[in-house]
Design a protein that fits this description.
The protein is mainly alpha-helical. The protein has one domain. It is globular.
């Protein structure tokens, strides 16, 4: 018998019978809504700053909170655009047909895991926004066909997505590879950029990234609940395809053709934007060699989405549906920006980072950078914003100790991968699209946190 897993349905968790079931039970009973959690974290950081931060007085705290809240808006819009443009690609008809064809091959929970992990991981490595959307939509398609625990499946998708900060859309890696980027702290200190070959393509990053996907696939297969405890997906029909038919901006199919409707359905607008975008990228890469940063990543996904959606109105409708999933991010980004402002303005972040740096050696600094990042990420769940807080302290330490700058910087990024499995900020879009309560998902991803914590730490220490 299927039980409804929609967010509006009150779900009474069964008594725990094992470690994983116990984690799910605890998260459902203890963890509040992500927005409420961000408010609680703001209060916690504010009190901590007033008690121990170097400049933890009330005027500084209030000013830092205000500055951080509104100073993050430009970056927040960039991140939301990455998610929205990734959504538009994933919702394109040809991609949807591909997802349905893939889902048809998953006939058991084990096969579902063997399918979800590599597909979502590859999508997330290419673009974190695309990975979130593909994970949510693929999970729904599989759950329609297979008797599988839906929370377990969505948690597997989110776990596979966790490697995104080691991929092509890694904010930290991209910013350090981008000449003139405001967050390129390496270039500001040394006059040189760090190419992607030294970060995301380096063995100490690429090997643990693959290993996390392989190991967690095997673990998730064993973690699937017994048949009698499965909480299956309840199909309410409220997916992307149904949303499109209910779009208030869509014109009735029997409406008389007008100049406006013909213009909307024409590919001329799409071709114009494609010509402008492709022309700019060709010119830029010819003059400055191939490079990716946040803005060019958004542009590339915009162009791909336009090409796949074909007409301007189809793309506009896809973005409107994407906006339904980004509302929670619009709400939480300013709150976390305020937390970031407090930590940076009062010196609290520097205390955390310096506490690790003071005991570091050239060999151990990347690992200490990684460990301190685990803590900061729980309070500032954005790789770019996090780097703005922690980078100014770990980078000078790396230069003064003659430690590896790429390894130190990527230690921060890899810790983002790990801590995101306990910090629900980035899980909000995927659970919103999938249609499930976030608390049940986080109970499973706590296991991913523990396993990936060890794998990435070992890679930083042992892999050359």
């Amino acid at each position: 018998m299927k039980r409804d897993t929609s967010p509006t349905t009150a779900f009474q968790p069964a008594a725990p019978r094992g470690i994983v079931e116990g984690l799910v039970y605890v998260f459902e009973r203890v963890m509040p809504d992500p927005f409420m959690l961000s408010i609680c974290l703001t209060f916690f950081v504010a009190v901590l700053a007033l008690l121990i931060a170097p400049t933890g007085n009330l005027p500084t705290l209030l000013d830092s909170w205000y500055t951080g809240t509104f100073g993050i808006l430009a970056f927040a819009l960039q991140m939301i655009l990455i998610l929205a443009t990734g959504y538009a690609i994933a919702e394109a008809p040809i991609v949807q047909r591909g997802l349905r064809a893939l889902a048809a091959s998953a006939q058991t929970p084990a096969r579902a895991a063997l399918l979800v992990f590599p597909v979502v991981a590859i999508a997330a490595w290419l673009n974190w926004g695309l990975g979130l959307i593909v994970g949510a939509l693929l999970s729904r398609e599989i759950a329609r066909r297979v008797h599988v625990d839906f929370a377990w499946l969505v948690a597997g998708s989110y776990s596979a997505w966790s490697i995104c900060n080691s991929g092509l859309s890694s904010s930290i890696a991209l910013s350090q590879a981008s000449h003139g980027n405001a967050l390129n702290l390496v270039e500001k200190a040394t006059g040189h950029v760090v190419p992607l070959s030294d970060t995301i393509f380096a063995p100490f990053v690429f090997i643990p990234t693959v290993l996390v996907v392989v190991v967690m696939t095997a673990i998730f297969i064993r973690m699937h609940p017994k048949s009698e405890n499965v909480v299956a997906f309840c199909d309410t029909g409220d997916d992307a395809s149904d949303a499109s038919s209910a779009d208030p901006h869509a014109r009735p199919s029997d409406a008389p053709a007008s100049f406006a409707s013909r213009l909307e359905q024409s590919m001329l607008g799409t071709l114009l934007l494609l010509a402008l975008g492709v022309g700019y990228l060709a010119m830029e890469w010819r003059e400055n060699k191939f490079a990716l940063d946040i803005n060019t990543t958004i542009l590339i996904f915009l162009l791909i989405g336009l090409a796949l959606q074909r007409t301007p109105i189809a793309y506009a409708n896809a973005i409107r549906r994407a906006a339904r999933q980004t509302g929670s991010m619009l709400l939480q980004y300013p709150v976390y920006g305020g937390i970031m402002g407090i930590m940076k303005g009062t010196g609290l972040a520097s205390m955390i980072a310096k506490a690790f740096v003071t005991i570091a050696s050239p060999l151990s600094l990347p690992l200490w950078s990684y460990l301190s990042s685990l803590i900061i990420t729980l309070l500032v769940p954005s790789a770019g914003g996090h780097w703005a807080v922690q980078g100014p302290f770990v980078l000078p330490a790396a230069l003064s100790l003659h430690a590896s700058v790429p390894r130190t910087a990527m230690g921060v990024a890899m810790a983002e991968n790990v801590s995101n499995m306990l910090q629900p900020f980035w899980a909000v879009p995927i659970v919103a699209i999938a249609g499930i309560r976030i608390q049940r998902v986080m109970g499973y991803t706590a296991v991913t946190f523990a396993v990936s914590l060890v794998i990435y730490a070992a890679a930083l220490w042992f892999v050359g």
